[in-house]
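Quick start: read one record
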Amino acid sequence: MRIIIAGGGAAGFFGAISAANQNPEAEIILLEASHKPLQKVRISGGGRCNVTHHCYDPADLVKGYPRGSKELLGPYTRFQARDTVAWFEKQGVRLKTEEDGRMFPVTDDSETVVECLLNSARKLGVRLWLGARVKGVRVSDSNQGRQYEVELADGARHLCDKLLLATGSSPPGLKLAESLGHGITPCVPSLFTFKVSDPRLDGLSGISFENVHLALTCNENQVLEQDGALLITHWGLSGPAVLKLSAWGARMLRQCNYHARLMANFLPDKSAEQIHAELAAFREQNSRKKVRTESPFRIPARYWHQMIKLVGIGEDTIWNQLTKNAMNAIVSELTGGIFEITGKGVFKEEFVTCGGVNLKEVDFKTMESKISPGLFLAGEILDIDGITGGFNFQSAWTTGWIAGLNMAIPGIRR
């Protein structure tokens, strides 16, 4: 049996390793268009590789996927984050869990994961062809059964009994799937930061807030909300809360041409009444202190200063001079500050798109195509994407593993 896998990323390597484990007699060829496989693994997590997310309940794990959650539930009952951790540890790569649930190799070096995958594939006899760009694929039906003829850019043609497309969201890979009969949902960016030009943010790059409630509005009928940390950057806003919003709102934001309104509640654990009461008490206790330099809340001092200036409170205003209108303005800014989004940035560490092969056309028990028997699909070529935190790699490990197992089952060719 000959198996060809197109795509030398996380899903492709795991598919190859899984197939080789399932059927040691199979000839497995892994094609990578570039000369450096596993590039996304190398750069993810700032070069540390966010391998997976510490969530071992499939029903909870699938909540991290704006698209594909229903389809992944079954696969995650067969190979989930716990299995990923166990597999890597068996290869000698221990993972650690950070406070937010992200899991990294204890070395904090993505090369640890890259070398693990390369060595595992090599030991199992997987043949890795670099610089092997797939130009086209066609079905070859004969008395030997259905096979696939894979044509490379150099003109070479190779027959295989099973074919796995694990080419990510690259246009050439999606065109291959489309040429074999699959419907493609157009790809749009999923994880990205927000471009915001606002005087409250000027010169504050690097300042962060531990927990903020964000509400994103593209039009009056579409509102998305997220809680989490917020980071000010030199181009606008980032951090986990923003990245989650960008994932859940990926298509909505594309339709709005990345122009939207973001409302931020910097004190989500307090009601407006509580904030008013705390401001009033603080005014009584700090009557002679300047408003701009003394804040009753855990708000970064530089942001507080610029916010106070924005609402019209003078540099030398002291707390006992604060008017009722000024107090209302502070509460309004703290609980519902409005920021205009004018575009998107690029989340360079782990760029992800939503879109890809129509999920209804794939059997998620096997990852085999319902359109073209003998064709399998795994990873980001599918219309599946997760929020930041290891979810995207986990879907790649899982779909690749299941595809590999089922491709390599010895038996009669179709």
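The radius of gyration is 26 Å.
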